[in-house]
Amino acid sequence: MTSSRRLSLGLAGLLLLGAGCAPVGSPAGLSGSDAVEITLPPASVPTQPEPTPVVTEQPATLTAPGVLPDAEITGKVVRIHTEKGDITFELYPKSAPLAVSNMAYLAGLGFYDGVTFHRRVEGFVIQGGDPYSRTLPPGDPRIGTGGPGYRFADELKDDFRYDRGIVAMANSGTNTNGSQFFIMLADYPLPKNYTIFGKVLSGMDVVDKIKVGDKMVKVTVEDKK
Question: 212: pLDDT confidence band, cut at 50, 70 and 90?
Fold first, then answer.
């Protein structure tokens, strides 16, 4: 059992990207006390502080897949089916084989099906991937603390920047990646602390429409056409 710290977006002008599974504060399911403080532009700062983060116990029910065979992660895209349309993003297995393998593994298990996007910061990111969001009511303080029950290492040795459409792992500190991820709504100079493992190819119009509580109806990994 590992303690999970809530991964949340932006408090009083600060954005903490974290994920025992998610960005800002600490994304879901992974434990970790370290978080990166990022000053947000005025338009992105919530007017009300978010609830105090809570610590929960996260049962380890899955085992990290490591790096999957090349045939399972190369030349693939991820399709997120939502009620507002599909979001399709390419994967970067050469620079982030662990994160890409993790996404392929969890998607193959149906882990993300029914999970919601539980964070949105206008002009910055949308965040999702916490399994608690599948069953708990919106606003429940446990949402943002969930994950697959394991953590895996960061992969940061690339030249990618956090530009609009980039897909990256949310975390709560060094090497605390789990299942939560975020999609950039705009270019933003984040520190190189979050593993970038893909970029949206189609459906950015859908990304722009995503609100807190919108579901990932089904997430699939498909051959890139």
Answer: very high
Q: Which domain holds residue 7?
A: 2-41+68-223
CATH number of the domain bearing residue 161: 2.40.100.10
Whether residue 47 is contained in a domain is answered as no
DSSP string, 121-133: ETTTEEEE--GGG
Of the candidates 143, 141, 137, the residue with the CA atom closest to the CA atom of residue 118: 143
What are the counts of helices (DSSP H) followed by strands (DSSP E) for the chain?
A: 3, 12
C-alpha span between 163 and 216 (Å, rounded): 22
Element (H or E) spanning 205, and its range?
Answer: helix 204-209
What pLDDT, in 10s, does the model give residues 74-100? 999 999 999 999 999 999 999 999 999
Domains: count for the chain: 1
Helix or strand (DSSP H, E) at 118: strand 117-121
